[in-house]
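#structure-requests
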Amino acid sequence: MINTQLFTLMKLTILKSIIKRFLTRGTAVCLTFIAVAFTSVGALEIPTFQVPFPEGYQRWTHIESSITGFNKVPQGKSDGFQHIYANDRAMEGYKSGIFPDGSILVFDKQEADTSGNYIRPGKRKFIDVMYKDGALFKETGGWGFEEFSGNSKTEGRISGLRQLNCFKSCHQNKAKTDFVFTRFKE
């Protein structure tokens, strides 16, 4: 959870650097921009709810699998096998186009083991989870985001601010598909 004092300190640090940069240019418009930006950031609700580990997700509906960067040495964080799973509520969303609260999507990322004459899934790198709850996650399109490192059910969690950044930098442009990248193919 994000400490309110820490978040306020972060806002003030950002504001200070913006003021310093723009005051040297001496523009009243910039000061107006800063006031509006600071007010907007202050009104922003940062998610504080921790998305739970999705127990049994490998028995859910398998949406798709793919492999990326298997020929890279070393493989980056995003390289390897990725398997996407959806719970029953999320399957309703895949069919209707609107994911109801309680929908959970899991992105299971594993290394690509290229030893031998074939490529197979290796060690788990992480799992990313999207959890739909419109009341809890208003700022992120109704979705909460979480990450779990390796096979851990507790390590690697992301902060509320990082959840917000994940949404804004990656999922926000997918509003037409309820912020979901994948499509279910029967």
